[in-house]
Design a protein that fits this description.
about 100 residues, alpha+beta, single chain, six-stranded mixed sheet
Amino acid sequence: MKTENMTSTNGNKVANQFIITDDNGNEFFQSYSSVIVKRYYPHQESEDNLNTVTNKVELDKKYWNYSNTTGKYRNIFLNETIKDTRKKIKSGEYKLTDLNGGI
């Protein structure tokens, strides 16, 4: 597992905004102590082991749009605007779920 601070447009490390990469290559955006986004990178499918991941992006249903700062760095992490994100939630491309275990 690897954790790194996000960087600002000036190239400085940003406090309390993190990108976490797990051992499977999945990425998480964490703002302060809350996970905001999980981005899956499904492994190659084989005949014997079908990949069961249907949504590549999950957003925490409580915190995905918690504050302006969270939104700013979520947009950077996803490389899109809030309008794009809302559209993908509505279409079902992005799934809202509990990424923080009921915190």
